[in-house]
Amino acid sequence: MASVTIQKWSTAAACGGQVNHIYRTREHYGNQDIDRALADRNEMAGTAEEARARIRETIAQVDAATPPKRVRADRKTVAELCIPAPRAGMSDQDARRFLTAACMELVRTPGMHVVGIGLHGDEVHEYVDPDSKNRVQSRLHVHVLVVPDIPGRGCNMKSWLTKARYKELNQLLDRVCERELGYTYQNGSGQQSRGDVERMKQRSLQAEAAELTAKIDTMRQEAAQLDKIRQETRQDAARATEAAKRAME
């Protein structure tokens, strides 16, 4: 089932590795599913440097308006929303229409400030669904970086990132999807979200490894059976040869 997933980052992490990933500023990536030949299918809101500046400036403004009681070194100040297209196999045009409308709606949503957006069309690949164990095609998706801004609490990730927030965001996506495409974002199955993207990829790799292990076991069994047949054939041939020799004598 389609649903938004959220990761939280410190300012340094968001301005560093995540902005590099979202805005595709590197030459090489650890993610082997990125196809640089499809880079023209990506869409970014501004540049990586502009996103970094927006992140720092927005956090400073929110903190000035509502000063935090305590600032920890690992303070989480930026949330990353990953929003996949509603359905597998849908047209690229419909997927982009929905994702663009969703981003516009998020910009207008109170309680957070959108500071970075990257729509990725260069990660098209086949993977094993960890739940159904079927091979499926990856979906077009968008990453949205936001700075929380809770009335009376300011940039407080713990207060912002709650179960109610997940429900609120998925309901927002339902409304956008119904308006743009005529059906809900969530398919009504009630299936729970499967965690962030990296955890999903890890589970997919585990499922693929299990699939390969099963294939190897099957091949070993088939090889053992073929070896048994080969040995029996050799024994039959030897017996036939011996019988022929006796007959000639």
Radius of gyration, Cα only, in angstroms? 27 Å
Gross geometry: elongated
Element order, helices and strands?
A: EHEHEHEEEEHHH
Q: Decide which structural class fits the backbone.
A: alpha+beta
How many distinct helices? 6
User: Beta-strand percentage?
Assistant: 15-25%
Helix content: 40-55%
Average the pLDDT over all residues and give the rounded result. 84
Q: Order of strands in the sheet with the most strands? A: 1-3-7-4-2
Low-confidence stretches: 189-196
Number of strands: 7
What is the terminal-to-terminal distance? Answer: 78 Å
- Biggest β-sheet strands, sense, barrel: 5 strands, antiparallel
- Multimeric state of these chains? single chain
Description:
This protein is α+β, with helices and mostly antiparallel strands and 249 residues long. Helices cover 49% and strands 16% of the residues. The protein is built from six helices and seven strands, in the order βαβαβαββββααα. The chain has helices at residues 11-23, 48-65, 92-107, 157-160, 163-181, 197-248; strands at 5-10, 43-44, 76-84, 112-120, 126-128, 135-137, 141-148. The strands form two sheets. Strands 1-3-7-4-2 form a five-stranded antiparallel sheet, with helices on both faces. β5 (126-128) and β6 (135-137) form a beta hairpin. It starts with a strand and ends with a helix.
